[in-house]
Amino acid sequence: MDAYVALEGGRVVEARGRSPGRTRGELVFTTAYTGYEESLTDPSYEEQVLTFSYPLIGNYGVREERLESERVHPRAVVARELTDDVADWLETEDVPAVDHLDTRDLVTSIREEGAMKCGVAVGPDATPEAALAELDQCKGMSEHVDIGKQVSVDEQVVYNEGDGPEVTLIDCGAKGSIVESLVERGATVHRLPHDATPQQVREIDPDVLFISNGPGDPQNFEAAADLVEELVGGIPLAGICLGQQVIAEALGGDTEKMTFGHRGVNQPVKDVRTGKVVMTTQNHGYTVADPGRLEVTQINVNDDTPEGLESEDLEIITRQYHPEANPGPHDTLGFFDDVLAMARGDAETPALAD
């Protein structure tokens, strides 16, 4: 099956087609060599074309219990080699996929030039011109300002009703393992749509408001920022990934797009208070440029971007990385203990790890 990937600048890469279709999106890469099921079902990859830097993807099959959501989110998948298990899964999901190309070259291009738009054409009638046509359509598109609708629940979902801390999770594209991490610790989780109103939150009267991860530009999630602005100081706040960015912007800070982002399971994070370094899972293309009213407590060792923000007075704790870390590493699972301790009102200085 023929396949072509057209890159910004006009270069067209020929490949082997593994799942047919035509699409377009932002070409990004992940350095993870395990967890391909989790990555492919992470809503934060919505509207992107995901390139795996590790050469073989699929060597332990596909298992439903590892999935982070109900569907594959990248618009297309690129790899050096895909096993039949993964290729068949992607075809079932109607997600174009290609392999047998030089992914090292692609990753180098993204690192040097930044995440870029691309067009993908796969199938018996695929041509370079078809891939370029997809790219042309992509060039004229701005980032999807209403992307939250594609990755959020439509109405409230409640998990683990009981006597534990009440968490209202604003679903901007939440991974399933975030809910699981809270439920495992005894919390009742009220999952609300990305555009939930302050009134909806007040009706629940939670012990903590939690802004989830999600795709793209945090400025596309105005409703979540409005929630933070209105409720800050009256309720403890927590956030992961996009959630950290939304909270920072709502409290007078600013965010910016990164050159190629952080995506993988090997990102080193340092606690500026203790000097301790742990490895983390990450998936984001934006970062906090100005923390506003929050204090930077953790930084990325590679580029000094903020990885943790906190405010003791406002009862806020956020992380840029993914503490639930499916499939690993599990260095930072203690974040959820810190959040629930804050919800119970007995929080101490949050720790970088257990």
Q: What's the structural blueprint in terms of helices and strands?
A:
Blueprint: E1 2-7, E2 12-19, E3 21-30, H1 36-40, E4 48-52, E5 56-57, E6 76-78, E7 81-82, H2 84-92, E8 97-99, H3 103-113, E9 116-123, H4 128-139, H5 148-151, E10 157-159, E11 166-171, H6 176-183, E12 188-193, H7 198-204, E13 208-211, H8 222-231, E14 237-240, H9 242-250, E15 254-271, E16 277-290, E17 295-300, E18 306-311, E19 316-319, H10 334-344
Parallel strand pairs: 3-4, 4-6, 5-7, 6-8, 11-12, 11-13, 13-14, 14-19
Antiparallel strand pairs: 1-2, 1-9, 2-8, 3-9, 10-12, 15-16, 15-17, 17-18, 18-19
Helix pairs in contact: 8-9
Explain what the structure shows:
With 354 residues, this protein is α/β, with parallel strands linked by helices. The protein has two domains: 2-139, Carbamoyl-phosphate synthase small subunit, N-terminal domain (Glucose Oxidase, domain 1, 3-Layer(bba) Sandwich), CATH 3.50.30; 148-344, Class I glutamine amidotransferase (GATase) domain (Rossmann fold), CATH 3.40.50. The protein is built from ten helices and 19 strands. The longest helix is centred in the middle third of the chain and has 12 residues, at 128-139. The radius of gyration is 20 Å and the shape is globular. 51% of the residues are buried.
